[in-house]
Design goal:
By secondary structure, the chain is mainly β. The protein has one domain: Porin (Beta Barrel), CATH 2.40.160.100. The protein has one helix and 20 strands. It has an 18-stranded antiparallel barrel. A hairpin with a 2-residue loop joins strand 16 and strand 17. The radius of gyration is 23 Å and the shape is globular.
């Protein structure tokens, strides 16, 4: 009840100013793309190429070295209506095909034969209102509706959902306050889930320094959607918080990005047992553009769990979070997926959806890349990355076992990956991406087939994507 009262009070403040008619300006934008890919031993976020548990690629069935190919597409359409600088509304639709020739006609399946399917998704539906000053000289905007919530989305949080975000700009500081509603449940019962977040940043001598904090309270035993609670099962309650600090800036021609994020919480299972969880991530990225060249590198470390302990030590992100690719993953291809291809493919591409990690948890690694703008219509990038395992007494991805004791193996090397990315500007509104990636698989990807360990064949991908933006 208190939360509702606060919301009503906020709305009164927002709309207390005298109303007056304003002309409406409409804008429309969007994109359509086409993807064709061939690959081996690579899962996908859509579940099309899932790995293990009785799926198409399953070591337990002796068929973990399959190669495949597919074509798919995505379309987006965004409408905006602006009434001056004070008010704007946004409606954003998305349409997906997991594979052309989709097996059903529901979400992510517009490639169904005969088409005419229910594949149109409402991604965003929100409006922004500038709050009148009322004597307080701080620019303030309130956004209400189904909207994106983004905090350091390269590593931590990007999610679309219902909520209210307040943005304040007391120069030179920016403050974002958010309340989001992942799940309501029964209105008269305390079975809902809420998320609260704050992000504060400011610029000092060319560097943006910031800190953020988030808290999620899940009263239901799991959020009853495709997203589970903060844990490994959908039958858990949770109280969880995250604290982070970051810095972005430029010095001596180098661009720097640094993040540190810590999570801590308590998870209660429906059977009455509970456990504590905490983990952390640290990452540093450096980029150096020079004439037509672009050089970069980086390091990251994200804690993994310990299979011999009840407490969860792996770094996790909030349920449903889909962190976007940054310099670490944009030009990669196999393990984290390629940012040029929506981050859709890769072993870690789907990790964020069940909150047991955002694809980074349980790994550490180092990467380097070099890019060259050959001419105005062609760029090429070579990306190399070493990925290692931080899970203890087990592996983050593989499930290999010791032949003698039957205990889970604890290996280090996930693999060494190389990717060549080609970026073509065909027309002003038409881009073509062609990538090839190969992962030299390490022991941490070995799988147990029920009787012995098997080393999977090295994963690879060759893919093209044509994007029309308007």
């Amino acid at each position: 009840m208190k939360k509702i009262s606060l919301l009503i009070g906020l709305l009164v403040i927002v709309f207390a100013a005298t109303a007056y008619a304003q002309p409406i300006e409409f804008k429309m934008s969007g994109m359509m793309d086409f993807v064709a890919a061939t690959f081996r031993n690579i899962p996908s976020s859509s579940g099309t190429m899932a790995f293990g548990q009785g799926t198409e690629i399953d070591p337990a069935l002796g068929n973990n070295d399959k190669a495949g190919a597919l074509a798919n597409s995505r379309a987006r359409l965004k409408f905006q209506a602006m009434a001056g600088k004070e008010i704007s509304g946004t409606i954003f639709f998305e349409m997906d095909s997991a594979t052309w020739g989709d097996a059903n006609g529901t979400r992510n399946s517009m490639g169904y034969w005969n088409a005419d399917r229910a594949a149109v998704e409402v991604k965003h539906a929100f409006f922004d209102v500038a709050v009148p000053y009322f004597g307080v000289p701080v620019p303030m905007t309130v956004r209400l509706g189904i909207q994106p919530l983004s905090i350091r989305d390269s590593w931590f949080l990007y999610v679309d959902g219902a909520g209210i975000v307040v943005q304040m700009k007391p120069d030179p500081v920016k403050i974002n306050l958010a309340w989001m509603k992942p799940y309501e449940g029964k209105v008269y019962n305390s079975d809902d889930a809420d998320m609260y977040a704050i992000d504060v940043s400011g610029t000092i001598e060319g560097f943006t320094l910031g800190a953020h904090g988030s808290y999620m309270n899940i009263n239901e035993y799991g959020i009853p959607t495709s997203v589970t609670a903060v844990g490994t099962q959908a039958n858990e309650q949770a109280d969880f918080y995250w604290l982070g600090a970051y810095a972005d800036g430029k010095y001596a021609g180098f661009n720097f990005n640094f993040d540190f994020i810590y999570d801590n919480g308590k998870v209660k299972n429906i059977n009455g047992t509970d456990y504590k969880a905490n983990g952390w991530l640290a990452a540093l990225g450096v980029d150096f553009p020079w004439e037509n060249w672009d050089f970069g590198g980086g390091l990251w470390y994200a804690t993994g769990s310990d299979a011999n302990k009840d407490d969860e030590k792996a770094f996790v992100s909030p349920p449903g979070s889909e962190p976007g690719p940054d310099a670490f993953t944009k030009y990669s291809s196999v393990y984290f997926g390629s940012g040029l291809f929506r981050g859709e493919y890769g072993y870690a591409a789907n990790g964020s959806r069940n909150a047991i990690g955002n694809g980074i948890g349980g790994t550490w690694g180092a990467m380097a890349y070099a890019g060259l703008k050959v001419n105005p219509w062609y760029q090429v990038y070579l990306h190399g990355m070493y990925i290692a395992d931080t899970t203890k007494n087990a592996n983050t991805v593989g499930n290999a076992r010791d032949a003698g004791s039957g205990e889970l193996s604890d290996d280090n090397a996930i693999g060494l990956e190389f990717t060549l990315s080609n970026i073509f500007k065909v027309y002003n509104n038409l881009d073509l991406y062609v990538i090839g990636g190969y992962l030299f698989a390490g022991d941490a990807l070995d799988m147990w087939d029920g009787t012995k360990n098997t080393s999977i064949k090295d994963p690879y991908v060759l893919a093209t994507r044509l994007v029309y933006s308007f």
